[in-house]
Specification:
40% of the residues lie in helices and 11% in strands. Helix 2 crosses helix 3, helix 5 packs across helix 11 and helix 6 packs parallel to helix 11. The chain is built from eleven helices and five strands; from the N terminus they run E-H-E-H-H-H-E-E-H-H-E-H-H-H-H-H. It has a single domain, classed as Rossmann fold. The mean pLDDT is 94. The longest helix is centred in the last third of the chain and has 18 residues. Belongs to the class-IV pyridoxal-phosphate-dependent aminotransferase family.
């Protein structure tokens, strides 16, 4: 971008550490954040039933072209980083992708079994499109083809196991100085959180930093969820092969 700002599009599926990552970057004095800016447009265009659907649509921007303009707009004075938390499954037909070529794209992944085990605790109805892995692979391929190399990928387990090391490595890849303030934040809901925060963000709202990774494996998935996990695992494995490791 001509203004010299670093616009980071962080591509994740649901039930990852995407909100904790937004907290982490939002703790930087040089950074502004955006929480799932295409969510309202996605709900309005699909009619899909999600928790707090009407509230999300009422509070958000339903015209994806206006969302794109916001994502590329000049930053407030004194800020030089724009951290955008995106859900890959929001990028449906009718929502343009050309703007993706004008930002710095990073991909946040999590093991599909853990994603699905967490997802159904908040919303029982789920299929492969809801958890975002296939769209994540599509966007990854688009960015990699344009760059001629794999864009940055981080695995949530690596972040939780070594927050400082993994975030330092990510910042280095982005040409950004690591700031230790990224490791801790005050608990609570933020004005920058989406209106859906009260339904989805209880754990992050109670947190003060990254928690250690789960010490035990999740319980075996029932057959219908295991089928979804197996269907999306190749996409996860493909991106994981390019993940950034702590130095």
């Amino acid at each position: 971008m001509r203004d010299g700002a670093l616009r980071i599009a962080m591509w994740s599926g649901p039930r990852n550490i995407s909100t904790a990552m937004m907290r982490s970057f939002g703790s930087r004095a040089d950074t502004v954040v955006s929480d799932e800016p295409f969510y309202a447009a996605y709900l309005a265009m699909t009619g899909i039933d999600h928790p707090m659907k009407n509230e999300v649509i009422a509070a958000g921007e339903t015209d994806p072209r206006k969302v794109e303009e916001m994502l590329l707009a000049p930053l407030p004075a004194g800020r030089r980083v724009f951290y955008q938390k995106h859900m890959t499954h929001h990028m449906i037909e009718g929502i343009g992708r050309d703007w993706i070529d004008r930002v710095t794209n990073v991909f946040l992944i999590r093991d599909p079994n853990r994603v699905l085990a967490s997802y159904v605790r908040k919303r029982e109805a789920v299929d492969a499109s809801d958890v975002g892995f296939l769209k994540q692979e599509e966007i990854f391929d688009r960015v990699a083809d344009r760059l001629g190399e794999a864009p940055p990928v981080i695995d949530s387990h690596d972040v939780l196991a070594d927050p400082e090391g993994t975030l330092t490595a990510l910042c280095e890849r982005l040409g950004l100085d690591f700031d230790r303030c990224m490791l801790a934040w005050e608990p609570g809901i933020r004005t920058t959180d989406g209106v859906w925060a009260h339904h989805w963000y209880q754990s992050v709202a109670a947190s003060r930093g990254f928690s250690p990774p789960p010490a035990v494996e999740p319980a075996p998935l029932p057959p219908h969820l295991l089928h979804i996990a197996e269907a999306v695992r190749p996409a996860y494995d493909k991106l994981r092969a390019h993940r950034i490791a702590a130095g």
